[in-house]
Amino acid sequence: HETVYAIASGKGGVGKTTTTVNLGTALAEAGERVAIVDTDLGMANLAGFVSLTPDSTTLHDVLAGDASIDDATYRLADNIVAVPSGTSLDEYAETSPEGLRDAIEELRSQFDYVFLDVGAGISHETVLPLGLADAVVLVSTPEPAAVHDTKKTIELTERSGGSVAGLVLTRTHPDGDISHDDIADRLEVPLLGTIPEDPAARDSVYAGTPLVVFEPEGPAAIAYRRLAMSMTGVE
Length: 235
Ligand code: ADP
Ligand code: MG
What we know:
By secondary structure, this protein is of the alpha/beta class. The protein has one domain (4-54, 76-85, 100-232): P-loop containing nucleotide triphosphate hydrolases (Rossmann fold, 3-Layer(aba) Sandwich), CATH 3.40.50. The chain has helices at residues 16-29, 46-49, 59-63, 89-93, 100-110, 124-132, 144-159, 180-187, 199-207, 211-214, 219-232, and strands spanning 4-8, 34-39, 74-77, 80-83, 113-118, 135-140, 164-172, 191-196. The protein has an 8-stranded mixed sheet, with helices on both faces. Strand 6 (135-140), helix 7 (144-159) and strand 7 (164-172) form a beta-alpha-beta unit. Helix 1 (16-29) packs across helix 11. The longest helix is centred in the middle third of the chain and has 16 residues, at 144-159. It is globular. The structure holds adenosine-5'-diphosphate and magnesium ion (MG).
C-alpha cells in the first residue's frame, strides 16, 4: 500500500487538519503505526488538535538543520506520533523546506502510514509535499469556490510529479443540492469519501482531542473510520 499521503487543498479552512488527525487516529486504533506531520509551515496548528505542547523541537528546527526528525517526533497515543511545526513567524523565516525529503523518508522507514498536513495555496512549501508523497488526498467542501481551487491543487500535484489518490468532501449536508459524485467527476478524480457536517468536529478541536476519540459514534467520526478503511483496506 501507499505509505506517505499528502492531505491537501486549494482553499484553507476546508478540513485538512481534521482529516489528517482523524485518518491517522483511526488507523492507529486499528493497530497501524502512524505519523502525522504538520507541513503547513506558515499556519501550523496540528498540535492544538491533539493537545500537544512540544517541549521545544519542531519540524522547523529539523528544516533549519538544527535537529533530527526523531527529536521533533512526539507520541500521542498507542501507535501514533505527531511532528508539529513551530508557530512563530521568526521560526518560519528560518525554515528551508529542502530538508523535508529526508525527514519524510526517515518517517517512511519507521511507520506504516505517514500523513502530511499540507498548507493551502500554491507556495513552495505547499507544493513540495505534493511531489514527495506517494499519493495526494484532495480535501474540499462542496462549496463551488473550494471545488474550483481544488483544480489548482490537482495541477500542482501533476506538475510536481505527484499522483492524486482522490477527493474527500468534507462538511457535507444531506440536503446539499450538488451531487458529490458529480463534483468528483467534474474534477476527474475518484471520490474517496464524504464527511458530514458535524458540530462535534469543532468541539473536538476545543477539547484538543481527535474527533474519532471525542465523539466516536458521531456521524463525522464514523465517516472518518470508514474512509480510513476504504483507503487502506485496514479494518
Ligand atoms: P484546514 O486544515 O483545511 O484549514 P480544519 O481541519 O482546521 O481545516 O477545519 C476548519 C474548521 O472547520 C475547524 O473549525 C473545524 O473544526 C471545522 N470542521 C472541519 N470538519 C468539519 C465537519 N465535518 N463538520 C463541522 N465542522 C468541521
Ligand atoms: Mg489546517
